[in-house]
């Protein structure tokens, strides 16, 4: 276990900022699903539009999950949201328990 003092505060801040940005991208992608589907259902060729929107959304989701899964913890250097093969987008580092807003708590 390492504590906050071992990490350069500037590095910690920019690392956590990157994680927060990627989390936003992930949640926005998930929330986009419903409105984009509703729009697609109103299209003249609804069936085709729904399939197109769904494929684009799945690709976006894969990118969002990959970005989130691969982001590194600025404190311990491990993947922030990953432990082995389990993925958990919670607010603490899986390995060193660093909180997402640790840079704002000081
Ligand atoms: Zn960590």
Uncertain runs are: none
In N-to-C order, the SSE pattern is HHEEH
Shape: elongated
Proportion in helices: 55-70%
- Beta content: under 5%
Largest sheet features: 2 strands, antiparallel
Assembly state (oligomeric):
single chain
Strand arrangement, largest sheet?
Answer: 1-2
Number of helices: 3
Terminal CA distance = 19 Å
Q: Give every kind of bound small molecule, once each.
A: zinc ion
Number of strands: 2
Average pLDDT number: 92
Rounded radius of gyration (Å): 18 Å
Polypeptide structure, described:
By secondary structure, the chain is mainly α. The chain has 3 helices and 2 strands, in the order ααββα. It is elongated and about 60 Å long. It binds zinc ion (ZN).
Helices and strands in order:
Blueprint: H1 9-41, H2 46-70, E1 82-83, E2 86-87, H3 102-105
Antiparallel strand pairs: 1-2
Helix pairs in contact: 1-2
Bound molecules: zinc ion.
Offer a concise description of the structure.
The protein is mainly α and 106 residues long. The chain has helices spanning 9-41, 46-70, 102-105; strands spanning 82-83, 86-87. It has one domain.
Question: Which properties best describe this structure?
Answer:
3 helices; binds zinc ion; mainly alpha; 58% helix; two-stranded antiparallel ribbon; 2 strands
